[in-house]
Structure formats: structure tokens, C-alpha cells
Amino acid sequence: MTTLTDRQPLAPHASDPPRALRRAATASFIGNFVEWFDYASYGYLAAIIAVVFFPASDATTGLLATFAVFALSFVIRPLGGIFWGHLGDRVGRRSALSLSILLMSGATFCIAFLPSYQQVGMLAPLLLLLIRLVQGFSASGEYAGAAAFLTEYAPEGRRGLYASIVPASTAAGLLFGSLFVVMLHAWLTTEQLHSWGWRLPFLLAAPFGLVGRYIRLHLEDTPQFRSMARQMERKAPDSAIPIRVLLTTYRSKVVIAFGVTCLNAVAFYLILSYMPTYLSAELGVPETESFMASTVSLTAYIGFIFLSGALSDRLGRKTMLIAASLCFIVLTVPLFMLLDHAGFLTLILIQIVFGALLTLNDGTLASFLSEIFPTRVRYSGFAFSYNMANALFGGTAPFIATWLISVTGSKLAPAWYLVLASVVALLAMRCIHETAHRPLDDR
């Protein structure tokens, strides 16, 4: 097997496990932060992007077009998952993560310089789609790679806590995006926002990405990967393609991982990305209030995510993921019903509750998906199943929610969609054994 293990420079302080773990956590956090700051900016500015990049139409059609581009960027994610999984399992986690953050931050930076529909016509949305596809491809290796990286670095009994840094960093990116958009709405006029203000968040991707890449290049790969690489090099070269091994030997685990991730995909994008648009476009909540409510709930969510990660180390991944499914099945529709005509404080409280429910799943999923696959296909297994679920149900969630409301005339349609995803995840979790209290499979 060809690896870069022997050619990678030893990181400074690589012999110091606590410091190496802190550096790994920092590198993982920054990469996901950049990725999700971009998605937050796109989602929270959806109404403006609809006007800038698409022909004049009614508000619903414009939003559908914007969310369609958002969803199409996820179509390429399964292919990206295969690519980054192969690179991460054969060459190294560090190499895959260093390349993916460079590609992601570069593509995000380019969005800031795209021409509008008024300037170039239909070329504008086509260019937007092209860059979103590049983002989708690069992002497909980020979350899975960072989670596998941290899980393999984490000490026994604390994998859940350390892996929860990954979803926490996604929430931090969303939070910073929400704060940034709130400031844009507060400081700029509508004309300024539509003219140049919406471009500002995307300009920040370049410096963030360069910092993240620098940190990752000065890391050593995980102990599990280096150990596996040495073992494989002592044996006959392994020519098996990771995705082929995954879909033959570990097919049932891929199906289970996909099913569990369906809830995470739908809930994450409905609650943390689509909700401000839902509140303002469907319920008539002023934009400033809807963004502020999301900002407060995201802050609480980041605290809950670490608690859920720590609890999953004690109670088990299966217990936490089943509890998340049951809570969403029981509470989603009533909470959505309370949103209509709710005051500002009630909106915040409801979103905090939704965030807490999501952390039961989100704070546990990263460690769970890393633990069910062995080292030689861990990156591939996580990336493929996670990205397949997000391609089908995550990136499409804002579009489907908007479409369901348009077709049914019911503002509760997104809630029932989330309940359906919860049922799928519950059925999947009943088919797997507990993984929290077992050593990682180092095959």
C-alpha cells in the first residue's frame, strides 16, 4: 500500500500526546468553521441571493431557485466522499484534510466576485452553481475527515467528547455567519446589501482557510492510521479500493449509518440553516428578529453539543441516538405549531429546545460513525454514508420544506418531514450494537 506516512514531517511536539491532541482539535475546528460559515452566509442571505442571481419573479420562486442551487451542490457530495475517503484511507487523514480546506476556502472566496443576473444574465446562476459544486465536492471530505481524525486521536472513554468538537465547529460557523448577517442588516441599507454587502462574508474564507491549512500541515497523522500503515507495509501491498471493500464487506453498516444520518441531515438544515428564512418568509417575523433568535439558539446549541458528547461516553451512542429520534417524533409538530404567532422570547425558547434535541443526535453522530467502521475504511465509510444522506435529504431540506408548504398550503409541512426522518433513524439504530465502550477496530 502506498502511503505518505514515512514522508510526512514529524509535527513539533508529536511526542507530547496532550499537545498533539489540542493541535488536532484546533485544526479540526477551523476547517469545519470555514465550511459552515459559508453555508450559513448562503442560507441566511438566501432572499438577497435570489434577487441578485435570478430573474425577477415572485418571492417563493426566487427562494426555490436559490435553495435548488444549494441542494444541487450536495449532489456531488457522494462522489466527493468516495474521493476524500480513498485519499484519507490510503494516503492519510492529514493530507486529505489539508487539501480539502484549501479547495473549500478558495471556492468560497470566489463567490464574492461573481457577477449578478443584471450584469451577465443566466451566466450568473450557472457560475454560482459551478462554484457551489466545487464547494460541495471539497466539503464532502471535511466533516468526516475531521471526525475520524479526532476520534483516532482521542483517549479511550472520551471519544464522544472530542468528536463533538466537529459539530460544535459547524455550529460556531453558523453562529458567526448569523452574527455577521445581523450586522449587515443593521449597518447597511437594502440597496447596499443587494449591491455589495452580501459579498463581504465570502471574502473572509481566504484568510480563515489559509490559517486552517497551515495548522493541518504541521500535524502528524493519527496513531491509528500510522499503525495501520506500518502493518500493511510489512504485508503484501493492499490493492483493494476502500469504497469496494466498504460496499462489499461492510454494506450493512453503510445502510445503518445512512439511516441514522438522515435525521441529522434533515434536522440540521431545517433547524440551523432554514429556520431564519422560514420565520421571516412563512411566518412574517421581521428579519432582524428571526436572525437574532437563531443567534441566541446557536449559542446555546454549542454548549449543549459538548454535554451530549460527554453523555454519549457514559450512556452510550445507541441510547443517545434513539432518544434523539423519539424526542423529535413526539415534539417536532407541537413546537412548530407554537412558532406561529409566538413572541420574540418564545421564538428563542423554542429554537433553544430544537437545538437541544438536535445535539442529542449531532453530538453523538460523529463518534458513532467513526466507531462502526475499521481503520482501513473509517474515512471512506463515514464520508460515503454521511454525504449520501446529506445529498439526498440534507441539502434538499430547505428546498423540500419550501416546496411542501407551497404545495400543501400548510406551514407544518416541514415538521412532518422532520418526523419522517426521525422514524427512519429510529429504525436504523435498532439494528446496531453499542460502540461507545469498545476499543476502535484497528483492522
UniProtKB/TrEMBL annotation:
The chain crosses the membrane at residues 39-57, 63-84, 96-114, 126-149, 161-184, 196-215, 254-272, 292-312, 319-338, 344-369, 390-409, 415-433. The keyword Cell membrane applies. Residues 24-436 form the Major facilitator superfamily (MFS) profile domain. Gene3D superfamilies: MFS general substrate transporter like domains. The keyword Transport applies. It is a multi-pass membrane protein. This is MFS transporter. It comes from Microvirgula aerodenitrificans.
